[in-house]
Amino acid sequence: MLFRFRDPDAGTVHLDGADVAALPADTVRTQVTGMPQDPHVFASTVRENLRLARPGASDAELRAVLTRVGLDPALLDTEAGIHGTRLSGGMRRRIALARALLVPPAGRTGTLLVLDEPTAHLDPGTRDDVLDDLLSATAGRSLLLITHDLAAIDRMDEVVVLAGGRVLQRGTPAELRERPGWFRTLGDRHPSAPVQGRPATISSVGAQR
Question: I want to staple 183 with a disulfide (CB 3.0 to 4.6 A). Which of 21, 108, 174, 176 is the partner?
Fold first, then answer.
């Protein structure tokens, strides 16, 4: 709904103070960008993959964004392979984030970044490295993080716990730890582990800590 792929059956979704249902889909998508669970990397060079987001980007800008997401700037001429098979899962996620960061800012508050399960299918060591790089790269940007993984929760300004389409809890990480409920129970048992078969935790931040 945030990307206007569908409109809500009830209620409204607001972006930058406006009801997204009243805006053209193309306008909304200039203000919202993100990284899906399984980001697609095309069978071309890293440079060409990045320029999908900003065709006129210079090599200097591309090298800068690769550095920002924790990748070697020398990768620009690297062939990604079909579906990015020559790259690791962590590298594909970082390239997808780099593309999102290259999208020119729009709206009063800039482009909203949406990261959907950015550490899915990664081993614990890679997960921690990728997550740290992703959050560092997006510091100061409006960010919506959708995740079952509590590892980055303390860097969020607000947490919304959802299950079955309903809001179970909402507040800062510190507030939710003080309240009886799903968040505190899970945090006590698995303070930084990915959650399987549990309600999704959607963490929304305006400016990261």
Answer: 176
pLDDT in tens, 171-206: 998 999 999 988 888 776 655 544 444 444 455 444
CATH class given for the domain over 1-35+110-209: alpha beta
Stated pTM of the model: 0.75
* pLDDT per residue as tens digits for the range 53-105: 899 999 999 999 999 888 999 999 999 999 999 999 889 988 988 898 888 76
51-58: long-range contacts, CB 8 A cutoff, minimum separation 24: 52/99, 53/98, 53/99, 53/100, 53/102, 53/103, 54/102, 54/103, 54/104, 57/102
Residues of the chain with CATH 3.40.50.300: 1-35+110-209
Could you give the count of Cα atoms lying within 13 Å of 91 in the half-sphere of its Cβ?
A: 18
